[in-house]
Specification:
The complex is a heterodimer. Chain A has 13 helices and two strands, in the order ααααααββααααααα. By secondary structure, chain A is mostly helical. Chain A has one domain.
Chain lengths: 318, 392
Amino acid sequence: MQKRDWLIFLAVAVFLAIFPFIAARISAISHYIDIMVFAGIFSIVSLGLCMLMGYAGQVSMAQAAFFGIGAYTSGILTSHFHWHPLPAIPIGCLLSAAVAWLVGVPALRLKGHYLAMATLGFGEIVHIVLNQEVEWTGGPSGLVDIPSLKILGVRISSEEAWYYIVWTAALCTLIFCFNVLRSRVGRALRAIHEEETAADAMGVPTARFKLQVFVLSAVLAAIAGSFYTHYVTFLNPGTFDLMWSIRFVLMVMLGGVQSLWGAVLGTVLLTFIGNEWLRVFADFDILVYGAILLLVALFLPDGLVSIFPKGRSASGNV
Amino acid sequence: MRSMRQGIGMAMMAAAFLGAVLPLTASPCMAADKEPYKIGAIFSVTGVGSFLGEPEKKTAEMIAADVNKNGGINGHPLELVLYDDESDTTKCNLNFKRLAKTDKVPVVIGPSRTGESLAVVGVAEDMEVPVITCASSYKIVTPIESRKWCFKVAGSESDVVGKIYDHMKSKGITKIGVMCDSTGFGASGKEELVKLAPEYGITIVADETFGPKDTDLTPQLTKIREAGPQAIVNWSIGPTQILAVKNWRSLKMDSIPMYQSHGFGNRKNLELAEGAAEGVLLALARVNVGPLLPDSQPQKPVIMAYKKAYEDLYNEPVSSFGGHAWDSMNLAIAALKAVGPDPAKIRDFVENTKGFVGQHGVFNFSPTDHGGLSKDDLEMVVVKNGDWALAQ
C-alpha cells in the first residue's frame, strides 16, 4: 500500500469504528448497523472477485457457489457434527479451494464469455446439489440448528460485536489484497489483464497465476460464507443462486473493477440500495440492477472510484 | 468526457446520500390523543412467495383499517408496519431487525414462508420480540426451549398427512405411491409422509420427485403405476399440481384415487385443471370451505365474516394464506388489547391463549405447543362438479 492508500485506509477505519455510535444515536438509522454487517461479509467476497476480475481479467459467475460451499461446510460441521465454529472455517476454505482448483484447471483454459459460461454452469451445479442433498443440507427448506460464533467461550450475538469482527476481517482482507497486488504476482496479474499473450511471451506463467487467483477468490468467498452462516444461523439454497453471483459481479463493477476500494464501496452501496433505499422496487430490483450496470458501463467504465482524483505511482493505480 | 463522468458519478453518490438521510426527515405523525399501538409484519409480497404474501398483506391491511375505523385498540390507533421480504432470507432477517430496533414494534406477524421464518427465529429469540409466523414447518416451533418467542398459525404438515392417512385407513388403503416437488414445501411434505406412514399401517411403494418447473410428470406417474399402489399422494405447489392431475387423467390412472396436499386448496386450481380434478381428495383448513360447513361449526361465523369483508373489498376469493394473516393479526390484536405493547407480556399472553377461534381452526397454545392446531382442525374435501365438497 502507498501513503495515499494508508491515509484512505485510516479514514475509512476511523469512520467504521465510530459508525455504530452514530447510528445508535439516530433512531431512524439504528438498523443500518445490521445492513453494514452484511455489507462487510459481502465485501470479503467482492474483494476476492475484484482480484480475479480487475487484475487477472477473469469473470466468475460462481462466487455465490463458493460463498455457499464455505457457508454450508461451516453449517453442516457445526450443526450435524457439533464442531466448534472456529475450526470449521478453515475446513470450508480448504474445501472451497480444492473445488476451485478442480474447476479452475479446465475452466481457466477458456476465455471471455466461455469462462463466464463455465463458471455459471458450475454455480448452477452447486445450487442443485444444495437443493437435492436433503440429508446433509436440509434441502430447499434449509439448514437449522447452526450455533452462533463463539470466541473463547463467549457467544457472539450482539450486532455491534458482529460488526467489528466482520469489518476487521474485511479490512485485513483489504490489506492482504493490496500486498498481493504490490508483489511480483500482482504485477504479473496486471500484465495478464492488459494482454495475456504478451504476458505469456514475457515469460509470465499465466495459467498458474490465473488459477492461483481464482482459488484465492474462492477461499475469500468461503470465509465470508462461514461468517454469514454463523451470523444468520440459518441457510437455504436461495442465498447461493445465480442472482447472488450476478450481484457480486455488480458490486465489483459498480465500485470500479480495477480498484479494491471500489469493490468495498460498490458492495456497501449495493447492499444498501438492495435492502434499504430502493425497497419500493421490490422484486423489480433486477431491472434496477440492470440499469445500474448499464449506466456504469456506459458512463463510468472504471466504476465510481473514477470520480475521485487518481494517485499515481510506479506500481500503477492500485 | 471526464467532467461528464464525474458529474454522473457525483449524481449517483448524491442520490445514494439522499437515500441515506431521507428516512431522517420522514417521520410519520399521527394526530391522535393516544399513542398508537404498532404491529410489525413481514410478508413475501413479491418474489416466488408472492402468492402467499399478497393475500396476507391485503388481509392484514384490511383488518388494521377495520380496527382503526372502530376506535382502535382500547382507544389506541393501530399502526401496521408492513415490509416485503421479497422472498429473500437475507432481506427478511434485516426487515425483522429493522422492525424490532427502528420501528420498535412489540410483536411481529409473518414471515410468509418457512425459509424466511427460520431466518428470523434466532433473531426473535435474541431480541426478545415475539413472532407469529404464517409458515407451517414444525422447525419454527421446535425445539421449544430455543423457540420461546416463536409461534406459528399455519397447521403442520404432520396434521395434514395425519388427516389424509386417517381417510385412507377408513377406505382400507394400505399401499400408496407418493410424488413430491423439490421445493421446501415438497421436501417437508415427503418427510412427514414417510415418517408417519408406519404409524397408520401404510406402506409407500413408490416415491418420486420432480422439479417445480417440470412440464411433464408422465414418467413419475408411470413408475408409480408399475408399483401398483391403491392411492397416489401428490405434494407440490404451483403449476405441477395441475400437471399431476392432468397427467393422471390422461394416463387413465383415475381409478387410483389421487390425494393432493393442502397447497391445492385454491379455487383457481380447479379452473386450471379444466375438469380433470374431479374426485381429487385433499385435507383443507375450514377457511377454504366456509359455506359448506354446518351452522353448528364454531368457526363458521368468523370464516363467513372474513370471506364477506375480503371479497367485498378486493373482489377476489379468500385463500387459506390470507387466513393465516387473519389468525396472526387477530392474535396480535387480542394480545395488545389484553396486555398492551409489552413484548414479554404479549409472548406470555399468546402462549396461554386457549380456544381462540380463527380461520384455520380453534387455537390452543401452551408452553409446550406454539402451533396450537391439530388434525381435527382440518376437513377432508373432494372435488365435485368443479367445486369443493366435504368428503365422506
